[in-house]
Amino acid sequence: STSLPEYFVVPSSLADQDLKLYSYSFIGRRMPLWSWNHPNGSALVRMANIKDVLQQRRIDQRICNAITRSHPLRSDVYKSDLDKCLPNIQEVQAAHNKLKQLCVDDPFDDTEEKWLSSLENTRWLEYIR
């Protein structure tokens, strides 16, 4: 994938030929990417969606098993679909535009209470939290 860095960490239990084979299953050939490791052994692995819904469970399970086998504490993988719990880029941009309009374009003639509710309605603080 041209969008991945030249070097990146992958589970040691996945063979190169498996990585190449699996890469075709991911949107944009974006293989799972070990992004962060906590001293307690927790790891953050980013993974693109799998194209073929029929193959998704099998590939997902094999990669999660490889991550578990490669984890120092052999901890189970906790998966979270960020597409469902995080805003998309268009929502973040819209919130930023509303914030900018509130802070720069609109005069501060309103009461503080109304301004704070307008700030909350931008959802900017929610997104950056």
Automatic annotation (TrEMBL):
Classification via PANTHER family: MYOTUBULARIN-RELATED, MYOTUBULARIN-RELATED PROTEIN 10
InterPro entries linked to this entry: Myotubularin (IPR030564), Myotubularin-like_Pase_dom (IPR010569), Prot-tyrosine_phosphatase-like (IPR029021)
SUPFAM superfamilies in the record: (Phosphotyrosine protein) phosphatases II
Boundaries of every Myotubularin phosphatase domain copy: 1-129
Gene Ontology terms: biological process: phosphatidylinositol dephosphorylation
Gene from which the chain derives: Mtmr10
Signal peptide extent: none
Positions that bind substrate: 88-89
Name under which the protein is recorded: MTMRA protein
Gene Ontology cellular-component terms listed: cytoplasm; membrane
Family assignment from sequence similarity: Belongs to the protein-tyrosine phosphatase family. Non-receptor class myotubularin subfamily.
Superkingdom of origin organism: Eukaryota
